[in-house]
Design a protein that fits this description.
The protein has 224 residues and is α+β, with helices and mostly antiparallel strands. It has 6 helices and 10 strands. α1 packs across α2. The C terminus is likely disordered. The structure holds iron/sulfur cluster (SF4) (2 copies). The site of one iron/sulfur cluster (SF4) has 13 residues, from loops.
Length: 224
Amino acid sequence: MEKIYLDICSGVPRYVYTGCNHCSSSMGRSLCEFEHRGCCFYYPKFELLNIQRMAKSLKGLQILELIRQKPKTTINRFSIHTQGFFNKESYETYKNTEDFYSDEAPQDKSLLFKTCPFVKDGVGCTIPHNFRDNVCNFFICKEALSDDKVKEAYTPYLEAMQNYIRWVEWENITLQHLLIEEKLNLIDDFKNTIKFLQEIPLDVYEFSNLTPIYISSGNWSKGA
Ligand code: SF4
Ligand code: SF4
C-alpha cells in the first residue's frame, strides 16, 4: 500500500508519495540517458527564501556553491536558475515518430528528453528538501491522484499548499525589498548579499497538520 504524507524538515514542508520510489507513471517516462529520474525533468529556480535557508548552515552553503558551480546556472539579481540536460538531437528524431502525437503524458514531449542537473539516475535528488523549490517539494503526478477518494482526501493538502505558497511569495518580496534598501543583489555583490541574508532572522511558517492518505493497490493500479 502506498501513501501520501506531509514531511517537515527544519520548518520546510514537502509532500511525499511513496510510489515515487518505483515510478512507472507516464509523467516519469524518460527517453534520455537518465532513465530512472522519475519526473525530475524540471529545471529548478531558487528564490531568496531558498537562498536564505541555505545561507544559514554550512551544509546549505555547500549546496549553494554546488548550484553556483553548475555550468548552466544563471545568477539573477534576486534568484538563481539552473538549466539541466536536454537531448535536443534525440528529441528532433522523436518528432518523426507516431509516439510524438500520442495523448499520453507529458503533453510537452520535450520533457521526455530533459533532466534536472541535480538528480542522480536511479537514486534521486541530491539537494536536501529544505533547500528545494516549491515545485520540487509539492509536485505529485495526476496518476497518483487519479482515484476519486484519493483526490477528495487530497483537497486539504492543496489548500495547505496554496496558503504556504502565498506566504513564501510574501517572504520573497520582503527579502527583495530589504536587499534593495541595502543596495545589494546577487549579481553585483554575491558575497555580501549572502552575508546579509545570513544575518537577518529566518521566518518559519507553521504548516497545517495533515492526515496521511493511504492508497490501496485497488485504487492505484498503475503502481507509480
Ligand atoms: S510524482 Fe508521479 S511521475 Fe513523479 S516520480 Fe512520483 S510517481 Fe513518478
Ligand atoms: S531539484 Fe531535485 S527534486 Fe527538484 S527537479 Fe531537481 S532533482 Fe528533482
